[in-house]
Specification:
Blueprint: H1 12-18, E1 23-35, H2 44-47, E2 51-58, E3 69-76, H3 78-88, E4 94-106, H4 110-123, E5 134-136, E6 139-141, E7 155-160, E8 175-183, H5 184-187, H6 195-199, H7 203-210, E9 214-216, H8 219-226, H9 235-248, E10 250-251, E11 254-255, H10 257-263, E12 271-273, E13 284-285
Parallel strand pairs: 1-13
Antiparallel strand pairs: 1-3, 1-4, 2-3, 4-8, 5-6, 6-7, 7-8, 9-12, 10-11
Helix pairs in contact: 8-9
Length: 286
C-alpha cells in the first residue's frame, strides 16, 4: 500500500507500535530448489557462502524423477545467491520449489517484540484466505502448515516474537518476525522462477504490496454493522456490542482481525487502510 499519511496523522496504536521498532531487516528465511542431477558439483567455496545452513539431499520429487537433488538454504546470503547461478546454469536444470520471504522488526526486548506481534494480529488481513489463525505455542499461522497438507500448499503467513532474529547476522536480537511462505504454485506469481530471481528479488517492492494493515473505523460503526436490525440504541450500546464480538476472537488482551473478518465478512466496508510505509522505512537486506 503506497500512501502519504504523515507520522503525526497515524492512529495512536500505530505510532506506539512504530516506537518499538529499533531496526528493520528483510530477506529470505529459507529457499528450497531442485536440480536435475543426483550429484551437482557445487564448490565448497560457493556452498559456504550460500547461507547460515545448507542441506543437500539426493532424492526425487514424487512422480517427477527428473528432479533428483533437493537443496535447502536457510537464511541465504545475497552474495551466495548471486554466485550460485554461475555454477548451476548451463550445466543443470533447476527450479525453485519453496521460499520464505521474511521481515524482522528488531526490538529492545522480547516484551516489545510481543507487543508488535499483537499489533499485527489486530491489524493485518491476509486477503483471499479462508483459514482461521492457528497457534503453535506462540507462533501464529494464517493457513495450514505443510505437515497438515502433506507438503502441498500455496501460501501461508506466519508471525512469532519469542525467538531471536535469524536475519540479523551473528547477533542475538529480540524481534517480531513476519514471513510469507510460498509453495511452487504461487512462486511464479511473485516472480521467483529461478535461483537468479532469488538473488535479484525486490524485497522493498514486495512488502509494501503484501503487508496489508487495516483498522476498524470505529467501535461504534462495528457495533452498528453487526446487528443491522437493531439500530435504535445508544452509541455506548454499539460499542458494547463491538466489545462482545471482539472478545470472541480475543488473544492475549487483544483480538485477531483475520478471524473477525472470516466470521463476519460484512464488516469489510468499515475497515480503513493504514499506511504501511512507516514500518518499512529503509530496511536492511541481509
Amino acid at each position: 500500500m503506497n500512501s502519504s499519511t504523515s507520522y503525526s496523522r497515524l492512529p495512536a496504536a500505530t505510532q506506539d507500535a512504530l516506537s518499538l521498532i529499533r531496526k528493520t531487516v528483510v530477506g529470505f528465511d529459507r529457499i528450497t530448489l531442485w536440480v536435475n542431477h543426483p550429484k551437482p558439483k557445487i564448490p565448497r567455496s560457493i556452498r559456504n557462502r550460500l547461507g547460515r545452513k545448507v542441506t543437500i539431499k539426493t532424492r526425487s520429487v514424487s512422480y517427477h524423477a527428473y528432479w533428483q537433488t533437493e537443496i535447502r538454504i536457510h537464511q541465504p546470503y545475497v552474495d551466495g545467491l548471486r554466485a550460485l547461478p554461475r555454477v548451476l546454469c548451463g550445466k543443470y536444470a533447476t527450479k525453485i520449489a519453496y521460499a520464505e520471504i521474511a521481515i524482522d522488526w528488531i526490538a529492545a526486548s522480547q516484551d516489545d517484540a510481543a507487543q508488535l506481534q499483537q499489533y499485527i494480529l489486530q491489524h493485518f488481513y491476509l486477503k483471499h484466505s479462508r483459514y482461521p489463525v492457528k497457534f503453535e505455542k506462540s507462533t501464529a499461522y494464517y493457513g495450514p502448515r505443510a505437515s497438515e497438507t502433506h507438503g502441498k500448499f500455496n501460501r501461508n503467513f506466519v508471525i512469532y516474537a519469542d525467538k531471536f532474529s535469524k536475519l540479523a547476522r551473528g547477533k542475538k536480537l529480540p524481534c517480531c518476525h513476519l514471513e510469507y511462505r510460498f509453495g511452487s504454485p504461487k512462486l511464479n506469481c511473485i516472480g521467483l522462477f529461478t535461483i537468479g530471481d532469488c538473488a535479484a528479488f525486490d524485497f522493498h517492492g514486495f512488502w509494501p504490496r503484501h503487508l496489508n494493515l487495516v483498522r476498524f473505523s470505529s467501535k461504534k460503526n462495528l457495533g452498528r454493522i453487526l446487528d443491522p436490525e437493531n439500530q435504535d440504541v445508544s452509541s455506548a450500546s454499539f460499542r458494547q456490542r463491538a466489545d462482545v464480538f471482539l472478545k470472541v476472537h480475543a488473544y492475549q488482551g487483544g483480538f485477531i482481525l483475520q478471524d473477525c473478518i472470516l466470521q463476519r465478512r460484512e464488516i469489510m466496508p468499515i475497515l480503513e487502510p493504514i499506511d504501511n510505509r512507516h514500518f518499512l522505512t529503509k530496511p536492511a537486506v541481509r
